[in-house]
Amino acid sequence: MMNGLYLLELLDPGYYAQPAATDSRPWNILIYFLPVLLIIVMIYLFMSSGRGAQDARNEAAKFGRSRARLITPNRPSVSFGDVAGVEEVKDDLREVVEFLKDRSRFQAIGATIPKGMLLVGPPGTGKTLLARAVAGEAGVPFYSVNGSEFVEMFVGVGAARVRDLFEQAKRNAPCIIFIDEIDAVGRVRSSGGPGSHEEREQTLNQILVEMDGFTTNSGVVVLAATNRADILDPALLRPGRFDRRVVLNLPDTHGRKAILEVHAKGKRLDSSIDFGAVAKETHGFSGADLAALMNEAAILAVRRNKTSIGMAELEESIDRILAGPERRSLKISPRDKELTAYHEAGHALVAHILPNVDPVSKISIVARGTMGGYTRILAEDRYFMTASKFKETLATLLAGHAAEELVFKEISTGPHSDMKQATSIARRMVTDYGMSEKLGLRTYGSEGVSGYPAGTAEQRDYSEEIARQIDEEVYTIVKQAYEISKRIITENRDRLTHIARRLLDLETLSGPELNAAFNEPISKPPADPKGAPARSG
Ligand code: ADP
Ligand code: MG
Ligand code: ZN
What we know:
Elements: H1 2-5, E1 11-16, H2 17-23, H3 25-49, H4 52-69, H5 87-101, H6 103-109, E2 116-120, H7 127-138, E3 142-146, H8 157-171, E4 175-180, H9 183-186, H10 198-212, E5 220-226, E6 244-247, H11 253-264, H12 275-281, H13 287-303, H14 311-323, H15 334-353, E7 360-364, E8 371-377, H16 387-408, H17 416-431, H18 464-491, H19 493-506, E9 508-510, H20 511-519
Parallel strand pairs: 2-5, 2-6, 3-4, 4-5
Antiparallel strand pairs: 1-8, 7-8, 7-9
Helix pairs in contact: 4-8, 5-6, 5-7, 8-10, 11-12, 11-13, 13-14, 15-16, 15-19, 16-17, 16-18, 17-18
The structure holds adenosine-5'-diphosphate, magnesium ion (MG) and zinc ion.
């Protein structure tokens, strides 16, 4: 939970948004024509299937069958060795593997294995991979369906398919049924809205009926995956259904290193590679992101005519995944470049000086994607945050803004996302973590009421008066952080200018160069740019 909050990649979208738009013209064309194409396809489908109600019903029945027959089991060759950094989860699943391999041992002693297990975790953390690995380890058939497949146009088709699926599975036991993205069918049943969810609900009911209808001894284990366990219908989670839960989190530094090593298999690496260092720089990456990172680096090595992947390719790929490819062809005026340099130098300087902010690992003013530049913090694994860490994080987020104001006497459109992030952190300090002295130790806004975006009136468990106070507190916290930022920058104005100068010279600072920019003696204070930059918008 905390991992996600303590992002602080400090990426700055918003600069140069204009050129980015004109540059992506091929996409625009696609986007304009896509709806037209879709309409043509739909008209065609309608024409070819418009044959009266009876026909349609037959079609529906056939549809249910034929699709169900398509659910052919496969026998995954994946094993637990292919899944890294989730040791506890593997331990939990090992008993399922043992059970599938040899049921009689469990039966002899009277032990039952849960029928259903729910794999919960953010996208890309290896839920699907793990389910396949369980089947692979046990050497049993794997029946896999996706929750969204059930949401079809004909009522009853989904339920028929579920029936078929379980029938086939029971005939081929021991085996695994895997329902991916179960939230697509398994969300809380609607409380009487316009009857548009009928199909989904019938499918869900059928899943419940099937799960109640077989005994564990039949040797079928149902695994399901979701990233939204909070919206699942409670009926799904009752004993005898998906009563066992396995949680997958984004990997920590150790986990990331292990995952990188798994995906390094079969790739040629040179001796410069240090996965420990890469793991430290990829805070917040999921397993899928890391797999993509390794592949991107391999492609880059080919494009650079190298025979093996080096650290340089991995570093470049991290930047690409975080911020998009470099856009060197972009014509950026010297003024804008200067503004970006001071903005990023502001972030870096304040992060460097404040004691509770993780170290800065890289500053860059090379335009990437829609970003003018960025400052990267080497975020550490942390399991809790303190109020002072939050406050210093806020000051760091607002430092780009503060540097612009102090140097150029004006604020550009750049730091927009910084402010957004800062505001949302400040709000959570007040409403979720009880870090406001005025409002005290309680949470505001009822958790668990799903379906409404946070902070909407439906979710509130506090009065209008409290709402106003929360807003005030958020404002005060952000303002105080901004003052800290401005003070640090004012007191270290020469250092700010120095870092910005080095950035303008080298475009990217990391390692020894970054260290030097922070620490080397400043010979003579160079002049700051004068006046406000000529910018529009
Ligand atoms: P999810 O189903 O949780 O969204 P997937 O299982 O589809 O995630 O993961 C996508 C890909 O990411 C996998 O095929 C694998 O290449 C990689 N991956 C994810 N987690 C891990 C992990 N723990 N170890 C190794 N590879 C992983
Ligand atoms: Mg998946
Ligand atoms: Zn910024």
